[in-house]
Amino acid sequence: MGTTIVRRWMLRAAAVSTAVSAVVLHAGGSGALAAEPIRIGAVLSVTGSAAFLGDPEAKTLKIYVDEINRKGGLLGRPVQLVLYDDGGDANKARTFATRLVGDNKVIAMVGGTGTGTTLAMMPVFEEAEIPFVSLAGGIEIVEPARPFVFKTPHTDKTACQKVFEDMKLRGFTKIALISGTDGFGKSMRNQCLKVTGDYGISILADESYGPADADMTPQLNKIKNTAGVQAVLNPGFGQGPAIVTRNYAQLGISLPFYQSHGVASKSFIELAGSAAEGVRLPAPALLVADKLAPEDKQKAVVSEYKKTYETATGQPVSTFGGYAFDGIQLLVKAIERAKSVDPRAIRDELEATRDYVGVTGIYTMAPNDHLGLGAESFRMLEIKGGEWVPAAQPR
Question: Are residues 161 and 135 in the same domain?
């Protein structure tokens, strides 16, 4: 069953990304078409093991660039989205980043599905002094802050803090880690280790697995046989966490199980199947849009994005597409405020973002903070009946 689902998602992503290398989207209005286009770049993992992240990101960017152009473009000019598919390969990502700067002459970039591909591309955009809004989770993308690099997802450090807050409330102080060795998994593991002391948590077992591994039962058996473990956390993204979740159930491990925001999409539930029941993770409000209170500041924007995306694609919304929505919106608003396509002026306006209500959270950036989100923008969710629901808290 798991293999069939993975194949279906891969075929779906491949269909969307046919000839995705250099997808160009531009305006339909005759006036806007007469003007020189504003070129925005994107390098995403539309195919490969991270396709269920990159595919909704690509679809989201296309939807909203089309919308911008239907409304007459940006600064009276059409917008072209130049999109490359790196397949999750960091070397390809860097090559495409170089092409965007040298050949395509983009004025900004929204993309970088994974931490590894983002880190490979960052030097290219920093050297060219072109704003780069990443859609990846690793904290090292924005700490320390680099002049031209920003990002929209919460950091892995923030995810660790949210998970540990929940564990503390539930009385868990002795836990195990099983982490992916991909860029995101390694980064989140390291960040979790740095903050465990703040929550009185001890790590009794610390296992890992590779991105291509198809069976994690040996590592999970070690955790199962470690005395005193009260809960397990799996930092990782891509297909690995779904395999871990299935193996976890197969071994009959009954300990509370936490995942990261790196799997916050319906596809994770599909890949993990019934084994996902009861899994907890920190995630943006988008996954529970219909369950938000009317007065919630994010309700309107997350509800509208969910409706727009699902109507356009016929697929359930994911937080990864939401990261792309926030990325393109932050960039467009910065260009509008700058009244210019000068990359440095755009950079300055991105850094000046204040109280932008997005689907991922409410962003306020600063010279030393190129993310602008805190732990309060995370919601602790649980999977019940194959759906996301707000996690119940101890009374």
Answer: no
User: What are the backbone angles phi and psi of residue 123, rounded to the nearest 5°?
Assistant: -60, -30
**What residue type is 94 in one-letter code?**
R
Q: Is residue 128 part of a domain?
A: yes
* Residue 371 belongs to some domain of the structure: no
Cβ neighbours, 10 Å, residue 325 = 29
pLDDT value at residue 262: 84
Of 238 and 337, more confident: 337
Output the domain CATH number for residue 90. Answer: 3.40.50.2300
Are 275 and 340 contained in the same domain?
no
Give the SS3 label for residue 360.
coil
Q: Are 63 and 306 in contact (CB under 8 A)?
A: no
Contact 12, 77 (CB under 8 A): no
**Predicted confidence (pLDDT) per residue in 22-53, tens digit:** 455 544 444 445 689 999 999 999 999 888 88
Crossing angle between the packed helical segments 51-70 and 319-338, to the nearest 10 degrees: 40
* Same-domain pairing of 106 and 237: no
Rg over CA atoms, the chain: 20
- Tokens 């699902």 belong to residue: 310
> Does residue 215 sit within a domain?
yes
Q: Structural domain of residue 124, as residue ranges?
A: 2-154+300-364
Give the three-class secondary structure for 306: helix
Query: Helices marked H in the chain — which ranges?
Result: 2-16, 30-33, 51-70, 90-102, 115-128, 156-169, 183-195, 217-224, 240-250, 266-272, 299-313, 319-338, 343-351
Mean pLDDT for 364-374 is 95
pLDDT tens for 262-314 read: 888 888 999 999 999 999 999 999 999 999 999 999 999 999 999 999 999 99
Query: Is the pLDDT reported for residue 184 higher than 90?
Result: no
Q: Name every residue whose Cβ is closer than 8 Å to that of residue 146 and which is 6 or more positions away in sequence.
A: 122, 126, 370
Which stretches of 25-50 are DSSP H helices? 30-33
Q: What is the bridge-based pairing of β-strands 231-234 and 257-259?
A: parallel
